[in-house]
Specification:
The structure is a single chain. The chain is mainly α and 391 residues long. It has helices at residues 2-11, 41-44, 55-63, 106-122, 139-151, 157-168, 175-183, 217-228, 231-251, 254-258, 261-273, 284-288, 303-310, 313-317, 320-328, 346-350, 359-371; strands at 32-34, 69-74, 92-95, 129-133, 200-201. Helix content is 43%, strand content 5%. A 5-stranded mixed sheet has the order 1-4-2-3-5, with helices on both faces.
Length: 391
Amino acid sequence: MSSKKKKNKKTGVPDRWLDYAPVGCRIPGTRFIAFKVPLKPSLNCLVPESDSFGPWQLLDSVRSQDQDLGLIIDLTFTSRYYQPSDIPQSCCYVKILTEGHRVPSDAAILSFKRAVTHFLNQNHDNDKLIGVHCTHGLNRTGYLVCRYLIDVDGLEPAAAVELFNACRGHRMERKNYLLDLNRGAKRSNAGIQQPEQEPIRGLAVKPPSGPAQRPSDPAQKSLSGTAQRPAGPAQKPPSAPAQKPPSSPAQRPHGPAQRPHGPAQKPPSAPAQRPPSGLTQRPHGPTQKPPPGPAQRPSGPAQRPSGTAQRPLAPAQRPAGPTQKPQSDPAPIPLGPAPADTPPDPSEESQTLGENRPPGNRRRRRPRHRRGNKPQQSSLLPDPPTAHLPV
């Protein structure tokens, strides 16, 4: 667990950072204002939206007090919380590495006095403030601000400490810091007019669009998201139906438009060749009655009568079949000699085989021929003439 806590301290939000107010108020009679360390966007996303605090929020908080921030003095012993690129261009930046939990060294105190003096000399014609912060903006910040008030401005230690606690909103906690301020010797002011380092101008032009600006960021994301989502479906519907509907119906009418041409050409060519000259005279009568449009329709059925006219020729030849068969079949197979006492009928002798027979006999013989392999001669018919024919 201890290793995890150490890792979170080095990479995450500072410990107890949320327990302190972001910004105090201006210390009367000075240009100092204390605040806790502002965080870069990647660290602000780890805290609730209401507790996020970055360089741009710092600038807004100072302006809300009708003040203008001109210099930021960073006393933290690390550079992971933010970079000069996160600071607005309207502010300058000075970094003084100061170790925590220990009383700052004389070198750190001198560097602080030089940075403050140099800024006051450069901005004597304005009233811009000097913002000082450590991790919580309380112990290291309070010690160095009070040390300047005691050593340079000549303020009493107790009055300086009480003034700082009232303006910051929190009381200093480190006893070693308080003990050194109240009972420690004053530090020398020699060399404070000599600037140690030139302040760095901030590089940020506008607030970041990342998690540091959460209150304004969701509004921008929602607007941008809603503006882009309708754009996708708005482009798809016009493109898909614009191409498909015109192409498919444009081709379909061409098919049925060509179909009528086929049947219009076939009727005139078919009746001109098939029907004979005699049959062509019959349809002239009905063709004159209907209008010229339907005149082509009867041409198709006009061919049908020609087929029916030829069909009767086939049944006309059918009787010739059965008349020839009895002549060949009964001739070699005699049924027996006629009795001697019955003379032959001359009417029957003069008749040829198959003539003047009753139609009923023909109707009976046809199914019998179909049923059996060989036709049986009816007993009703007279015997075929063989030896009784006259010479």
